[in-house]
Amino acid sequence: MLKDGEVIQLVGANRRDEALAEILRAYRRKVFGLAYSFVRNRETAEDVAQEVFIKVWRALAAYDGRAALSTWIYTITRNTSLSALRDRRGGLQTEDDAVLAEVQEGDTGSAEMAAERAFLLRLVGQLPDKQRQVVLLFYMQDQSLEEVAAMLAMPLGTVKTLLHRARVQLAAVAGVPAT
Amino acid sequence: MTPAGNSLDARLRALYAGLDTSPGFDDRVMARVAAEFDAVAAARVNRALAEETKRYELARGRQSWGAWIRRVMTLDILGAAVLGGFALHFIWTPLSAQAGPLIAAHAAQVATVLGLLLALAPLPVLLLRQRIRIPGLA
Description:
The structure holds two protein chains of two kinds.
Chain A: H1 4-12, H2 16-39, H3 42-59, H4 69-88, H5 96-103, H6 111-125, H7 129-140, H8 145-152, H9 156-174
Helix pairs in contact in A: 1-2, 2-3, 2-4, 2-7, 3-4, 6-9, 7-8, 7-9, 8-9
Chain B: H1 7-16, H2 25-61, H3 65-72, H4 75-105, H5 107-120, H6 122-131
């Protein structure tokens, strides 16, 4: 786990590129996941993630550790994602199915399993935005609820409620137990 | 919240487990950072060059009249000036007989115009000097 102090030390030693490499290692997937949860388009999410890390690199020299690095990065990610959504509204197509196809690449499971996963993905896609975001971030890489709350800048209780409602709804439609 | 073996949890985890950036993402970010760093450095060099050129032009424009005269007073220029002087002398000598009475008749007006010209001559020079004076270079 990357510590904020290490980043400050690297920046202080004029090793901003190394600091960014460490940040990339620690936050790449989280930033991409958070961006994807907003824009729901892989290509746009990658563009946003790239933009986020460039912004982080530009601002690193001024980073003094007063705010947690993660809070800072997630805030940049949310703002950049919302900005991308505003810029591309109308021209942006969500592509959960395409992502599923990619996720399943190399999957040796049966066609039945693939169909079931596609079904589940569509169900998640139909959830209200906040619930969908919480589900994606929570399951994408086993984030803790606290981490998901930090990523979305929501109170922990709200995240718990959203996840609970989403699970109940998904379980009901999918015909599986929610807990 | 996530007991082991839970069917929905397992399915959702499997659903998003492979969602990640495309290969080479980190390299692309680092390449963009390097390109931006180069662009920033190049812009800084260009800015410094432009400032230096401007400073040089200003300094050249502010050189003293003495230096300017020393620079233009070459042997060629001196030769041309002497030749011009002789030419004026030879043209003026035959004309002076006719122009003399004319000048005598209008001496007062000629003297006034010449006086005004002499009085106003430094004005354009002062204006020009004020225009090229830049704080910090004086």
